[in-house]
Amino acid sequence: MAVYKIMIVEDDPVIRTELKNMLRGNGYDAITVSDFSQTINEVREQSPHLILLDIRLPGKDGFSLCSEIRTFSDVPIVFVTGCNTDMDELNSIMLGGDAYITKPYNTAILLAKIASLLKRAYPTGNQEVIPYRNTLLHLESGRLEFHGRQIDLTKTELKILYYLYKNAGKICSRNDLIDFLWDNQLYADDNALSVNVNRIRDKLASIGLRDFIQTRHRQGYSI
Amino acid sequence: MNGKLYWKQKIPLLILNGAGMAALTVFLLLNGINSDSLILILSVWGAVLAGYLTGAYLLRKSQMDALLRLTEQLEERYLLPEVMERPARADDQVFYRLLKLVGKAMLEQVSGAKREQAEYREYIEQWIHEIKTPITAMKLICENHRSNLSKDLLAELEQITHYTEQALFYARSEQPEKDYLVREIRLFDVVHQAIAENRYLLRQYSVQIVLTETDDSVYSDEKWLCFILDQLIVNAVKYRTGSPKIRFYTEHGGNEVSLCIADNGMGITAGDLPRIFEKGFTGENGRSASQDATGIGLYLCKRLCDKLGIGLTAASDEETVFQLSFHINDLVHQVQG
């Protein structure tokens, strides 16, 4: 999978650094601009896949930067701002911004917006399938395949398995799993997680896959 | 005009005239006038005096009544000195000038106070935008260093955000016309957003979230709606009981679609129910369960809903249900569909 390059144009140094770390922690390549008079040149040179653009910047504001960028590039632009007036939101749409997020933003929402914009702007086309041992996890259709036999998964079950597959071999704590589900707008509690994991085990058993998910006492689950 | 008082004030004049009549009578009798002529002279005097006084009274009364009527018709009554005619009488002119001066002084005071208020509101809005930068930075730092400690901090940060937003919307609710962006929004997108804004708070108190998701869309302002839902969620958490649970679902009725937020908290007593949307009202449970009930949250919700044309009702039975009713605009659907 290609690593997307995201450019952060933000004048607060702490937010800039932390945002960079956060994006890097989530599998993106993040670059920052610190000399705002060079923003346009940086965009030309680096040609990022997506730009996070603050509206209030020293010198030129985000709106004029956006219209300048639009003269030569269709790169997705997400406006990130502290002042959430509808005038600004309207402006950002009119000037060719793709999304508008207000501070203090929720990182889950920000990441979801980024992911969906990237998916729309750079369609990969191929069905995402994650292999592990003798199984295949089909993300688009929500199925798990084992020796040619398939089971259908609910949204929650799919997300749980996706997280376990992504972290195959590692122990995933119950808390992290629940966090991940909440990131995906599935509001499971401790109890619901246990119920879902047990249901997955039953389904797996029906296609002959036993003891696939291990319970680590007091720690979580692993595959 | 008070007629009794008017005539009371004419007593000195009447006494003076009476005295004049008496003096004339004495003078004429001493000069040997016959009684017929005397009666005639006194009658003429009396008639002229009565005629003059009555005429003056009626004229004055009609003038004053006209002024009173004019004042009542005016929407902005303080504008009276600007619209009334300049009076003809010398003493009336003094009052007219006084009225103008007083009105002008008052207008200056009011506009000064208005300017101060606007400046203060502007400052508050500015301040809120500025405080959001450090809040965002703190949130990001916590997210990048996830631990039990940072999760507790994130829950507190959500509270800070909640109160900050409340202050912003309070400052704005005075003149929100400038801040509308009505477009088609999917109700449950906003619900997800409002839940995400409070996820650490909800996790902290192990609140169970039950969604009956639909694809209903309405025409409204997303930001405001999210704020309203945020207030309702925080309230549900604040007044939670044993194992808290919040349900989100939609209802259809007539040409309305309603978003319902139901919680199994301590509820609202029947006596408090009619007053919960009043400013500063903290009900029985508000005062006992939580020290920080401000009586602002629901008041703001109602106010914003009124401006947006959303119906907001509350019911408290086994569950406490807040219902947001949106008109479905058939016309829009017809045009689009």
**Order of the strands making up the biggest sheet of chain B:** 2-4-5-7-6
Oligomer: heterodimer
Assign the CATH class of the largest domain in chain B: Alpha Beta
Overall pLDDT of chain A, averaged? 85
Outline the low-pLDDT stretches of chain B: none
Could you tell me the mean pLDDT of chain B?
86
CATH class of the largest domain in chain A: Alpha Beta
Distance from N terminus to C terminus of chain A (CA atoms, Å) equals: 23 Å
Total domains of chain A: 2
CATH level-3 fold name of the largest domain in chain B:
Heat Shock Protein 90
Which percent bin holds the helix content of chain B? 55-70%
Describe the structure.
The complex is a heterodimer of chains A (223) and B (337). By secondary structure, chain A is an alpha/beta fold. Chain A has helices at residues 13-25, 39-46, 62-70, 86-94, 107-121, 155-166, 174-183, 190-206, and strands at residues 5-9, 29-32, 50-54, 77-81, 99-102, 129-132, 135-138, 143-146, 149-152, 172-173, 214-216, 220-222. Chain A folds into 2 domains: 5-121, Response regulator (Rossmann fold); 129-222, Orthogonal Bundle (Arc Repressor Mutant, subunit A). Helix content of chain A is 42%, strand content 21%. In chain A, a hairpin with a 3-residue loop joins β11 (214-216) and β12 (220-222). The longest helix of chain A is centred in the C-terminal third of the chain and has 17 residues, at 190-206. The radius of gyration of chain A is 21 Å and the shape is elongated. The model of chain A has no long low-confidence stretch (mean pLDDT 85). Chain B has 337 residues and is of the alpha+beta class. Chain B has 12 helices and 7 strands. In chain B, a hairpin with a 2-residue loop joins β4 (245-253) and β5. Chain B is elongated, with a radius of gyration of 36 Å.
